[in-house]
From TrEMBL:
It comes from the Bacteria. This is (Fe-S)-binding protein. The lineage of its organism: Bacteria, Pseudomonadati, Pseudomonadota, Gammaproteobacteria, Lysobacterales. InterPro entries: Creatinase/aminopeptidase-like, Pept_M24, Peptidase_M24B. Residues 17-173 form the Peptidase M24 domain.
Amino acid sequence: MSHPRQEAVGDRFDPQLMQHARERTWAALQGIRARMQPGISEDEAKAMALEVFQKLGMERLWHPVIIRIGPNTTKTYRERSEPGVRLGENDIYFIDLGLVFSGHEGDAGDTFVTGHAPQQQACAEAARQLFHLVADAWRSRGLSGEALYAFAERQAEAIGWRLNHEIKGHRVSDFPHAVHKAGDLGELGERPSSGLWILEIQIAHPTEPYGAFYEDLLTA
């Protein structure tokens, strides 16, 4: 598959609207974070999230809302959460949103900690650190998608975390991006263009049952 085909967009595509969708999706994520309290379940959190989306004028979801708590933070988006998990007083959780605003797809994910959980906090910060290291390598070295994830694996190991190899980023565009069948960012053999690809980083503690997730749009 050629690079132009993998970066194809629709007639309505507008880079400024992509940035608008990105900003609105991050606002939604922070709105959910502000409402996350110990005792809440993942299903309750997802139901609460719909109120946040309505206030921000979301048009639709382009992927299901994913909220993982505690041991479920090691699971990929394809895996089902273990039922009955509720947010603890000193706990970790992440939010992963795929929302459509003005016909364009936003995708954002981040990890947070409640109370005093220093090891889990270090995990959340490591996911953000890895994201920025990889994004900076894309900007400064022009790495391909494949090379970005090879770099991410080396960096994760260097700081003591395990990179989840099943999570390798993807395209976004004017809705629906899926018509272009672009594949994963981690399979792209050329340098991804700005404003079209989501870099996803998911890590886990090498021995303990928790992990962290961070994703955002790659932008120059």
